[in-house]
Design goal:
Distance between the termini: 104 Å
Low-confidence stretches: none
Radius of gyration: 30 Å
Helix content: 25-40%
Strand content: 15-25%
Number of helices: 3
Order of helices and strands: HHHEEEEEEE
Strand order of the largest sheet: 4-1-5-6
Shape: elongated
Length: 203
């Protein structure tokens, strides 16, 4: 009995392996924090480089002779170059281009050009400037594409792909990296600005 008590006292006083046990508790949290730090830093890097890339390509597209297909391929290629190898796919890149006659016309109500009774409402017989070429009166959402001379073009690119370290979702981060960059550029005045058509309400 005395031998057993002595052994228990000796075991209680033994501190060998305590550091390993403590590390086992701390390591998972520390590793998750490091992963989250890497993911956050990479997200900041990705957004900064993507914004610079989009702005450079948009400035080139504002010159005469630029084509939409060339712009799209250059932007997609540039974006894939800054993405991790496992995520390089056109499916992970969403590209949007909307053009307007003027900065002030972005998301503004389309202009009523003929208001027969002067009530400010588009009635039958009234006409409007179809600024977004969609044959529907409403908010000017912009026409698709690079636009023409002197048009303002609003570019938007979204990159989305699975994270490098999926387990960081345990810390509240989403399972995907999603970065959106935007820029607005006025095309060079290399010709006469394209006129928007006037449409009239018939019914």
């Amino acid at each position: 009995m005395r031998g057993l008590v002595a052994r228990l006292r000796q075991l209680r006083a033994d501190r060998e392996g305590a550091t390993l046990m403590e590390f086992g508790f701390v390591a998972p949290v520390m590793i998750l924090m490091l992963m989250a730090g890497f993911e956050t830093g990479y997200g900041i890097y990705l957004k900064t480089v993507a914004a610079g890339t989009l702005e450079a390509r948009a400035r080139s597209a504002s010159l005469e002779g630029a084509t939409e297909s060339q712009f799209d391929s250059e932007v997609r290629r540039s974006m894939m170059n800054i993405m991790p190898a496992y995520a390089r796919s056109n499916d992970n890149i969403t590209l949007s281009k909307r053009n307007y006659t003027d900065y002030s016309r972005i998301d503004a109500p389309e202009k009523i050009t003929t208001d027969v009774d002067g009530d400010g409402i588009l009635d039958v017989g009234d006409c409007w400037l179809d600024e977004d070429f969609n044959d529907t009166f409403g908010t000017n959402e912009g026409a698709s594409g690079l636009g023409g001379p002197d048009d303002g073009v609003f570019y938007s690119v979204t990159i989305s792909f699975p994270r490098m370290f999926p387990m960081v979702s345990m810390m509240g981060l989403s399972e995907n990296v999603s970065v959106t960059v935007r820029t607005l550029v006025i095309n060079q005045p290399f010709g006469t600005q394209l006129e928007r058509p006037t449409k009239c309400r018939e019914v």
